[in-house]
Amino acid sequence: MLGDFEVFVDSQPVPAEAWVQRRATDLVKLLALASGHRLSRDDVLETLWPTLSPEAAAANLHKAASYARRALGDRGAIVLRGGVIELAPGAEVSTDVERFERGDIAAYRGDLLPNDPYAEWTLGPRAALRERRLEVMRSQGHWEEVLREDPADEEANRAVMRRRAASGDRPGAARQFRALTEELSRLGLEPSAETLALQRELTRGPPVQATRLLDAPVEGREQELASALGALQRAAAFDGTTLLITGSVGIGKTRLLEAVLAQAEQFGFHTLRGAGQEAEGRTPYAPLAEALDPLAERRPELVGALADRAQLALSRLLPSVRRPDGMAEEPVERRLVFRAVAELLDRAAAERGVVVAVDDLNHADEATVALVHHLARSGTGERGLVVAASGAEPRWRWRSVRSNAARSHRWRSARPAGRCRRKPSTSSRARPPATRFSQRS
Ligand SMILES: Nc1ncnc2c1ncn2[C@@H]1O[C@H](COP(=O)(O)OP(=O)(O)OP(=O)(O)O)[C@@H](O)[C@H]1O
Ligand SMILES: [Mg+2]
Known about the structure:
By secondary structure, the chain is an alpha/beta fold. The chain is 48% helix and 10% strand.
């Protein structure tokens, strides 16, 4: 009955053609499933023909018994006696269900009576047998089997994640986690705290560090340095912000940005940096691609944990991200690119913190400025800091980046790292969001 319905009499299969009447097979199945292969007459009538009148049901029973005896080739195959109906009381009856219940796992070749999926009386036993099999699979550590039955089983998913990570396949562990979250979200659920903690533990990898460009110690600038490092400390305490550094050519913006990156490294953060390159034109996203590609290249599991759509969006941006298998090369909307970048940074921030530094934003393309704006506004996590340096007003929507940074509190919506010291000659309108360098007198 497990996987299929088949009857053997003296080891010989009863041919399918012998079962001319469905009610005959139903009666045999029901009795084979019953404990001791016997049931009261009333139970049989009520189970198989609940909607029929007692007379009609009784007539059905007699016909069913008669056809079943004929199919099984024995008058004693169905016995009705004293209000009880029995299956072959004079013979030895054995079923795969019983063998399975006695511990023979191989007897479970499939679900109970799969050709009667909706028969009311099969539902309970089918579910119970399936659950029992899952328990055995769990106790024997056959986690892949458990997942085939129940892809949302968290224990099995955790076990597979652990196994993959132990064999050095961190991206595989990340993919497993992702499959689980997708499965759970289909059910309107989220992974448990235990699974989330495991995900963090298993996929935590080494930090990705940006190359240092300037090493000379910072002289003076105590106030700017203190406010910039304060922003970083807040980010380390899960209160990330966006930091804008503005000031005229050669005044030390890159130097300050370097100081923030160096300190972030001390904190164990990922440090990512890119810059607008005036000489290279305004290639869309170039500074952010430069900043993020090392992360994607060295920590592919962070990318692998993202949904296929996000990976597709990133593959358009970052040379190290491959287009997911089975996804067509198609245009990706800007908002999907923004979201994918935010999600990747979110993973990096959640893992160990991240600083994304974009230098020379005034030489960046419109898409980069818009994406920096997006990161400042919508945020990508809590342990993150966006640092943007700009020698002049970038051509694109700079003002709104600035006002976003000004309003914010967390990385989600950034906040100014420090008060600017205005040059005496600047206009009276303060520009609070940016750390602004004034000429030293
Ligand atoms: N406070 C400082 N202490 C020590 N060196 C500094 C300081 N500020 C700037 N410098 C040095 O001055 C030079 C120019 O600084 P930096 O490149 O940081 O300026 P910038 O504002 O980024 O310039 P640009 O507008 O061209 O990008 C660098 O060699 C840098 O090391
Ligand atoms: Mg510079």
